[in-house]
Design a protein that fits this description.
The protein is mainly alpha-helical and about 200 residues long. It contains nine helices and two strands. α1 runs antiparallel to α6.
Amino acid sequence: MPFTALAIMAGVAAVVPLLFITRLPAALRGWAAAAVPFALFVGFATMLPGVAAGMIPTDALRWVPSLGVELAFRVDGLSLLMALLITGIGAGVFAFSGRYLASHPRQGRFLAVLSLFMAAMLGTVTSDHLIALFVFWELTSLTSFLLIGFKGESAKARAAALQALLVTGAGGLMLLAALADYRRGRSGGGLAETKAAPAKSGERT
């Protein structure tokens, strides 16, 4: 299976062990939590020479074939830079949270949602399909809401989480409208092929 798809699946699969991370000694939780994002950082780093030489790795997995929707990923220079930032900084955040929240009873839940957030961000920056891009964007909105509102007993945290959800939700609606407008007169849903396709007569490019 292609690495980009595996990276996103790894972020999702890490949810289960992270939910039970409190069973580990507090001193080991940070290292254990950072293991997956650090491994993904190393994996994406191995793509640097090829991408620098002009190669653009692409992956595609069938999602809803009847609708022509697939989980397609494309790693160009900008996507790779963002993936390295997400996984590299993410590894540091996981390591810090593993120690900082060691005494918190819901530490596992926080780290599990953080892993989903990382996976959603990776999908957003590497997606090569319009519908998949929108889905991953909405997943980042939902997971960021859960992270910001982690301390649900705090009115301030709940208000901040709601504000973030409204802002990202509005951004998602505008993204959906922009994608729908961009697809007019073009076939397929791949970002690369959509960008290369000629616009219909009278449409600005």
